[in-house]
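User: hey, got a sec? need Glycosyltransferase family 1 protein folded
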Amino acid sequence: MDVTDLRIALFSGNYNYVRDGANQALNRLVGYLLRQGASVRVYSPVVKEPAFPPTGDLVGVPAIAIPGRAEYRAPVMIPPSIKRDIKRFAPNIFHVSSPEILGHRAVSLARRWDKPVIASVHTRFETYFRYYGLAFLEPLALAAMRRFYQRCDAIFAPSESMAQLLREQRMSYDVGIWTRGIDQEIFRPDRRDLAWRRGLGIADDEVAIGFVGRLVMEKGLDVYSDAIDQLVRRGVKHRVLIVGEGPAGDWFRNRLPQAVFAGFQAGPDLGRAVASMDMLFNPSVTETFGNVTLEAMASGLPVVAAKATGSDSLVAHGVSGRLVRPGAIVGFADALQHYCENGDARAAAGEAGRKAADRYGWDAVNQELVDGYLRIIRQRQAGSRAPRQSPLPYTD
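Assistant: Yep! Here you go:
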């Protein structure tokens, strides 16, 4: 069996209606699979005006808007018509990308039809509750996720640090790696554009501390703002450059009125924006990989990030940036001040990050998951099955 024999049914809670790192990775994966001769059919909620065109065949599933986050859709079921569509497609493996209703129903369907199923892990959903005053629900979320992932034949994490966390949480017997790649034509140091910076009011000799991503509280916007406040109180000269949009945009603008907000950027424009920063500050603990961290490194920037899943596998502390205990405001401010005041340190860390990012090519990355598909199918054909129960104990 090889890649041309693969028939993959992919289930995603958000394939293309809101742009984020997870669904862009899935679209790149589908594009690679199709180029290699595999067959893929994608099942996900759809909207009239998606953020970008889908790669491959996309079949819409019923969904409702999520209260308080209306830009997102919550799938509610796999109706009989969709089940018939899946049956006609005749997949030989299921791939689920998030532990919500659609994912659960797809796993149940795969097990009913005796098909292997794998899950890719894209974000730390259990941590989201911390940002909305609901931290007490985190143990319940972990238990629900454990039940979901243990019903799959294997799960794939985007970084070794995330894979290790999943093992410690007893999420699966079989944890593989499907990391993320970088478009090295877009993210590179020579995309830096001082004229573009000047147009935003940032002088050539000002040190721009960047943020890239959706403006949502779970990205650590409160920690980001508090650390910048520390720099202001210390009298450290800097500018803040924010790239992205999102529902917390007004909150962030009010919190950092001195910052420059460049709005949403994509493709070469995003590459220009990132390279035109002087460092990236990423305090988030919700990422499983940290696409923006890798993009900044490829652009020659030092990275100050939370020592958490994702960045912990990318940033070499003291070499390509600084890793700081999550939520440690003073520690983040110290790291930012170091790079604000030391141009040689910025240049050395940026060059180290650029070299480290060279090994992340999308085709090689996606081939790792193709190899994982084939391995899981072979194991199933040899008689290996995912456990029917959830026998893995978990203790804090």
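Quick note: The chain has a mean pLDDT of 90. Let me know if you need anything else on Glycosyltransferase family 1 protein.
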